[in-house]
Amino acid sequence: MPETIQAAPQKQGLVARLDSTAFARKRPELWKFVKFMVAGFLSAAPEFVTYLALRSLLRNVEALPHFILFEILARNNPPSNGVSTAALVYAFMLSTAVGYTVNFFLNRKATFHADSNVALSTFLYVLLVLFTIVANSFIGPAIELLVGKISFLPLVLVPTVAKVLAMIVPNLWGYPANRFLIHRKRKEAAHA
Fold first, then answer.
1. Where are the domains of the chain?
2. Residue 80 phi, psi dihedral angles, 5° rounding
3. CA Rg, the chain, in Å?
4. 0.90 cut: is pTM over it?
């Protein structure tokens, strides 16, 4: 009689174990939102580090290319803490792009377990990111200047507080777009 080979038990990852908890089963939408926020928090670290590095590196760079966006922002916003408007805009734009790239992969795999068309999801996500970058390019420097003008904070903390606030704002449109448009599951649609 031939021996039957038993498969080795598979180890579950942390997300799979958490997804199987009673809380996650009873409140699946709330659990997705919690995971979305955790993914946002985890992607905030590289975004924030990139922002601080670029803000420091671009502080004294005079020859940054200027686009119409910079001219619009520079009209009403003088340089912040010795950093030009162009440097601020570049720092916000590029750091936001880094954070959202990390966020895409975390949300696709861990939060929504998406199995929809990757190309379509990526295209929709790029549209969301472009919108967010443009929005953050206006929101971020404006928040920094506002915090600097009305804040009791030491000048050295103003950029940090402003960046954290500017990173929170996109959640107003980010979760609904990710949940219902970008990271859909085909299997859910087939069962409905």
1. 14-191
2. -105, 120
3. 21
4. no
In sequence order, the 6+-apart residues with CB closer than 8 A to the CB of 47 are: 95, 96, 98, 99, 100, 102, 167
Long-range CB pairs of 32-36 (<8 Å, 24+ gap) are 32/111, 32/112, 32/179, 33/175, 35/107, 35/110, 35/111, 36/107, 36/111, 36/174, 36/175, 36/178, 36/179
DSSP structural state of residue 12: P
- pLDDT of the chain, 192 residues: tens digit per residue: 555 555 545 557 888 888 888 888 999 999 999 999 999 889 989 999 999 899 888 877 766 666 666 666 666 555 666 677 777 777 888 888 898 889 999 999 999 999 889 999 999 999 998 898 788 878 888 888 888 888 788 888 888 888 888 888 888 899 999 999 999 887 654 444
How many other CB atoms sit within 10 Å of the CB of residue 179?
17
